[in-house]
Recover the amino acids of this structure.
């Protein structure tokens, strides 16, 4: 069974530029999460999708961050414009809600210069 | 609000020694508890999980954890450390009003010396 796929793995951009991350969850997983992991910290939830619907986006900085999951499968997270403080690893996870277990992708490491 | 505290941001052990990584949670409802491991430049891999069945949970790579409700703890142990255990470990909580959402601790970096 294929795991959660994310791309790109690494991205370096200059501040004020836009950037997008892509995630394809495990087949059959209706719930998808985007987390941000700052250096030396645990992941923090940005947004949770149930199929196409964003059911928890309270931690998403909506002035510059946006996300979509149009067909209820893969998802894109966008930042526009990026700021220096956005440098972090962006993790995608998916689940079927059995025992609350989430499966994580390898992440995208973003560096904003 | 639920929270997870990992005591000790860095733990160093010798190869073959006992590994003990501490995790305490704050919640008034029965939790789901997890330990994840993260190797450099990789995502999180599940080591083990507590889901209200057995209080002593066995995971992969020889790790186990014991759920103690009275102490609100879920410490991770391994009897004998191996060099390949060097990584960062995260304790996470789900349950109650945060069902479906994982709350992570700050992480503990485990260093294993030869």
């Amino acid at each position: 069974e294929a795991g959660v796929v994310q791309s790109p793995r690494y991205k370096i951009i200059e501040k004020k530029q836009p950037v997008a991350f892509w995630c394809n969850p495990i087949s059959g997983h209706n719930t998808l999460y985007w987390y941000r992991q700052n250096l030396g910290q645990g992941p923090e939830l940005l947004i949770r999708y149930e199929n196409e619907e964003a059911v928890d986006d309270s931690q998403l900085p909506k002035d510059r961050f946006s996300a979509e999951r149009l067909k209820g499968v893969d998802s894109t997270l966008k930042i526009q414009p990026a700021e220096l403080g956005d440098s972090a690893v962006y993790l995608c996870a998916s689940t079927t809600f059995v025992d609350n277990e989430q499966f994580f992708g390898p992440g995208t490491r973003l560096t904003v210069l | 609000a639920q929270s997870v505290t990992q005591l000790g941001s860095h733990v160093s052990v010798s190869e073959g020694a006992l590994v003990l990584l501490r995790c305490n949670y704050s919640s008034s409802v029965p939790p789901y508890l997890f330990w994840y491991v993260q190797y450099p430049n990789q995502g999180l891999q599940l080591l083990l999980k507590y889901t209200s069945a057995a209080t002593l949970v066995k995971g992969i790579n020889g790790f186990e954890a014991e759920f103690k409700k009275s102490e609100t703890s879920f410490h991770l142990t391994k009897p004998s450390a191996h060099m390949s255990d060097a990584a960062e470990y995260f304790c996470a909580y789900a349950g109650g009003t945060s069902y479906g959402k994982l709350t992570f601790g700050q992480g503990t970096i485990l260093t294993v010396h030869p």
